[in-house]
TrEMBL record:
Pfam families membership: SpoIIP
Species of provenance: Lysinibacillus agricola
SUPFAM superfamilies xref list: Zn-dependent exopeptidases
UniProt-listed NCBIfam families: spore_II_P
InterPro entries linked: Spore_II_P
Name under which the protein is recorded: Stage II sporulation protein P
Length: 282
């Protein structure tokens, strides 16, 4: 009995001491120095082209700034013979054919002109004076129209500067002289008049010739050319002595339709952009 107790006690002691002995064995020991996890290292690549990129970005930003601050091309519209009319347009409204009308006239084209000019990057102002009405109020005759509008135009030019001033008229010529067909569409032809009785008329002529040439490049023969006027029975200046950027355009004739006029107005806008805006920006 005593031997059994001794054997049982010895067995219990063995199992009690076994974990302690096992912990001292070398193959079960943990390393005394903790294992560190590898650090994530960021690899930095040298940007050798940064100065070039910065210069390019600055150049682009400067170009965008210049584009935003660029002055628009400004045109002033003048209608010295404000009640000149086109027979087909008057007939649609009143049923009668007339070449002068107080309501349906060339002055009423100002909004159409402004719209087409705006589409070509042109800022348009209108000298808002019914000159023919002023003639009657001042009891003056038709040839006095340029003198009547002159103070209004002078005042405007003192207040603002323009890249181009256009005095728009309707020619008295018949349809065969004022109409042309291009690509199966009819256009009202134009003529540009320059008064040669002032010292700077060559400047006005240069503007007129440039615009005429550009229009003919877009629609061949739409411009009848530049007509220089001086001598008896003509004004000789047409107020173009007030600014070298002023020209007079005969827009179609008495027989041209509204559709033909609209097509030609669109061509005038494109030609102004081609002749003057591109040149101004270059």
């Amino acid at each position: 009995m005593l031997k059994k107790l001794q054997w049982s006690f010895g067995l219990l002691l063995f199992f009690f001491v076994l974990p302690v002995i096992a912990g001292q064995l070398p193959f079960n020991k943990q390393a005394s120095t903790p294992i560190k996890e590898p650090e994530d290292k960021q690899v930095v690549f040298a940007a050798t082209n940064l100065p070039e990129q910065s210069a390019l970005e600055q150049t682009k930003e400067q170009e965008q700034t210049n584009e935003q601050t660029k002055d628009p091309f400004k045109v002033l519209l003048v209608f010295t013979h404000s009640q000149e009319a086109y027979q087909p347009m008057v007939k649609v409204v009143s049923g009668k054919a007339a070449v002068y009308d107080e309501k349906t006239n060339i002055f009423n084209l100002k909004d159409t002109i402004s719209k087409h000019f705006s589409m070509n990057g042109i800022q348009t102002d209108v000298l808002d004076v019914d000159v023919m009405k002023e003639l009657k109020l001042q009891k003056k005759l038709f040839p006095d129209a340029y003198n009547v509008v002159r103070p209004y135009l002078t005042k405007r030019l003192e207040e603002q500067s323009y890249d181009l001033v256009i005095d728009l008229h309707r020619d008295s010529a018949k349809r065969n002289a004022t109409t042309i067909t291009h690509n199966n569409e009819s256009y009202a032809r134009i003529a540009i008049v320059v008064g040669a009785e002032h010292k700077n008329y060559r400047w006005n002529t240069a503007y007129a010739e440039s615009l005429s040439a550009s229009m003919n490049e877009i629609v061949p023969k739409i411009s009848r050319g530049v007509i220089s006027k001086s001598g008896d029975n003509v004004d000789g200046r047409y107020n173009q002595d007030l600014t070298k950027e002023m020209i007079l355009i005969e827009l179609g004739g008495i027989d041209n339709t509204e559709e033909e006029l609209n097509r030609t107005i669109a061509i005038i806008g494109k030609a102004i952009a081609k002749s003057f805006i591109t040149e101004k920006q270059s």
